[in-house]
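Quick question, first post here. What does this chain look like in 3D?
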Amino acid sequence: MRKPISRRFFMGTTAAASLSTLAVGAAPPGPVGDRKPVAVASGNGLRAVEKAVELMKLGRDPLDAAIEGVAIVEADPADMSVGYGGLPNEDGVVELDAAVMHGPTHGGGSVASIRNIMHPAAVARLVMKRTRHCLLVGEGALRFARAHGFPEVDLLTDRARQVWLHWRETRDPNDDWVPPPDEAVAAYVHEYIQKRVTGTIHCSALDTHGDLGCVTTTSGLSWKIPGRVGDSPILGAGLFLDNEAGSAGSTGVGEANLLNLSSHLIVEGMRRGLGPKDAVIEALKRIAETSVRDPKRRRPDGKTTFNVSFYALAKDGTHAGGCMYPGGKMAVHDGDSGRVVELDPLYEK
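> Answer (accepted):
Ran it through. C-alpha cells below.
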C-alpha cells in the first residue's frame, strides 16, 4: 500500500534511504586514488555534486556517488521536476524516468513510467546489476522495485496537486471544471502554469581513479500524455558515457535528444578530441539543424521552439555545459568547492 509522506518523514528520508534502498546494489568503498574527484550536474544539482564528491573522497564508486547525490533532489518536494513532488501527467499521476551508466563496466540500466517509487535512479542501477536487461517500464519496473524492497509512496504532494488541479480546471473553458477566482489561487500555482516544466537532474562524476559514472532522473514533462517517455531513461539520449572519453547528460525537451542521440554525440565528440565545450556546441548545432525540419518544432524565425541543455565531463576532468537559449545553469564541484555557473547558449534569444 502506498503511504502518504509527512514533513517529519521527509526530513529523514535521504539519510534513511542511504542506509536502506539506496544501499541495494551499491558497491562497498574501495581504496582512494590520487586524482581529485569532479562532479557536474544540472543547475538544481549543487547539493548533488557536493554529496557525490564527498563520497568519492571516501572511496565510493562514481556511479554510486552520483546516485546518492541525485537522491537528495529526488526526495525534495520543493523540486517539482524530479521524484517526490514532481508534477504529474495529465491524469494527475506522477510517473518517473531514470537511467544510469557505469564507466568501469560500461553497464547501463533504466526505468521508465515507474510510479510510487521515490528513488528511480537506484532502481535503474539494479536493472543494470541484477538483470540482463537495460530498460524496464511501467508496471514491470514497479514490480521489480518492490521485489528489491523499495517501498511504495504517494509521490503527489499537495503542492504539486494544486498546480495540476488548476491546470486541469483552466485548460478548456468549455468543459465542466470551474476554477476558483484568481485571488484564491496561490502565487506559486500561476508560476508553474505559465511555463511548462521540463526539468530533470543529471549528474556525471569522475572519481579519484579516473573512472566515470552518470545518472539522469526526472518526473518528465508536466501534464504529459500518460505513458510518455522522454530522453532521460534512454541510453545515448538523456545520458551517455565512455570511460575512455567522458560523460554527458541533458535536461529540457527530451524529444530533441531522442531524435538526435545527443548525449552519445557529445561523448563521441570528446572521443574524437573535442573539448567538452566544443562537443556540446556541436550537439546543439545538430539539434538546431535537424529539429526545425519538423514544423511543430520550428519557430517563425526558423529556430527551435524549445530549449535543451547539456552537461559534459571529460576523462581529464575538464567540463562544460551549453543550452539552446540563455538561462541554463550547471552545478560544478572541482574537488575543492561547489558552485553554480551559467551555461553557454547557442542563440542569444
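Residues 7-15 have pLDDT under 50 and may be disordered.
The first strand starts at residue 38 and ends at 42.
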